[in-house]
Amino acid sequence: MNTIQKLKNKIINWWGWPGLRPWSFERIKTYYYNVKFTIINYFKYAKIIARYRPWSYTDIIEMLRFQLNELCNNIEKYGIEIDETRLPKIADMRRAIEILDSHITDNYADRCGYIEDAIKIKYDDDLNRIIFEKRPEYKDYDINKIFKDARELEMKEWEELFTILKKMKEWWD
User: Fold this and answer.
1) How many Å from the N-terminal Cα to the C-terminal Cα in the chain?
2) Which pLDDT tens digit goes with each residue over 128-155?
C-alpha cells in the first residue's frame, strides 16, 4: 500500500466515509479539550517542570504537594460530598501537604530545638580541618540529641504521610 492510500485510509477511519459520522464530532470535541487542557497545564505546571531534575526525589515530592493542593482546593470548593465525610478527607490532605512542606524545607532540626548560633565553626589552617566549638552560653546544648530527635521526627512524619496516602483512593467525590 502506498503512502497516499495509507493517508486516505487514515482520513476515512478518522472522519468517516462518506461524509461525517456523528461520532467524529465527539472526536473533534475530545481533541479540542485535550489541547485546551494541555495548554492550561503547561502554564499551571511550568514552574515545577522548569525546576524538575530526574535525579532528585524532592521534585517528585513538590509535584505531589502541588497536585494534592490543587485536589484539596477543588474538593473543598466544588465537592458535592456531604461535610461529614468530606471534611476529614480535606483534613488528611492538608496534613499530607504540611508534611510534604516540612520535608521539602527540611525544618526538622529547627523544630527540635536547633540553634544556629550555638556552635561556632572555625577553620584550623595548621591541621587543615574544621573545628566545631560550643559557645559558652550554650554549654548544656546537645546537638547530637537534637539531630537524633530530628531524624526520628522525620521518620515518624514520613510514616504518617504514607498512612494518609493509603486512603487516597477514597478522596474523590
Assistant:
1) 50
2) 787 777 777 777 777 788 889 999 999 9
Q: What is the DSSP letter of 124?
A: E
DSSP letter (8 states) at residue 166: T
Are the C-beta atoms of 45 and 58 separated by less than 8 Å? no
Concatenated DSSP letters of 79-128: --S-HHHHHHHHHHHHHHHHHHHHHHHT-HHHHTT--GGGEEEEEETTTT
On whether the CB atoms of residues 93 and 171 are closer than 8 A, the answer is yes
Domain ranges of the chain: 1-44, 56-170
Which cell goes with 5?
492510500
Beta strands in the chain (DSSP E): 119-124, 129-134
Q: How far apart are CA 4 and CA 160, in angstroms?
A: 59
57: number of Cβ within 10 Å: 10
Collapsing DSSP states into helix, strand and coil, what is residue 172?
coil
